[in-house]
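Bug report (template v2)

What were you trying to do?
Predict the complex of my protein with zinc ion.

What happened?
Run completed; filing so the output is reviewed.

Input:
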Amino acid sequence: MPQHKPQKKIPMRQCVGCQTSRPKKELVRVVRGPDGTISIDTTGKKPGRGAYLCPDPACLAKAQKKKALERSFEQPVPAGVYQQLADQLAAVQKEGTDAQS
Ligand SMILES: [Zn+2]
């Protein structure tokens, strides 16, 4: 009997902006904390309800247009939160670029 190696399962998540499924670690987790605060979870360990986005401001823009985060979090997302997320996504992107050099 050939031994089947257990396939390492990569957890996949769908970007709420472009609807593409990607490995979880390639996506940015947006989390609504127990207090209703929405922020980017760079550690993946924040408590609360999560939604996933590509580290791409274009996906955030799509999500905003479709109100995808509102749907995921079942609450209104103020424009200021989107602005913060856009800033943080830009910072995440910058970090990624720095890490490669
Ligand atoms: Zn995306």
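What did the reviewer find?
The chain has three helices and five strands. Residues 15, 17-18, 20, 54, 56, 59 surround zinc ion (CB under 6 Å).
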